[in-house]
Amino acid sequence: MARTMEPLAKKIFKGVLVVELLGIFGAYFLFNRMNTSQDFRQTMSKKFPFILEVYYKSIEQSGMYGVREQDQEKWLNSKN
């Protein structure tokens, strides 16, 4: 019985590993895109504001301040 479970356990492990790697690369891509594009951040503020809030908090934790204020100022000026 243990021999038959071994290949299944390997498949499950590989599947979980692939899903985790996809999650890591996806998070990196999303962060990089938000970090380089103010227009993308505006899109995120409309569709997924909670994700944008996590982005702002993470960059403020790293010591980069003022990005949120610059975004809000630009978006307010573009409405007028």
Automatic annotation (TrEMBL):
The chain crosses the membrane at residues 12-31. PANTHER family: PROTEIN CEBPZOS. InterPro entries: CEBPZOS. It comes from the Eukaryota. Keywords: Membrane, Transmembrane, Transmembrane helix. This is CEBPZ opposite strand.
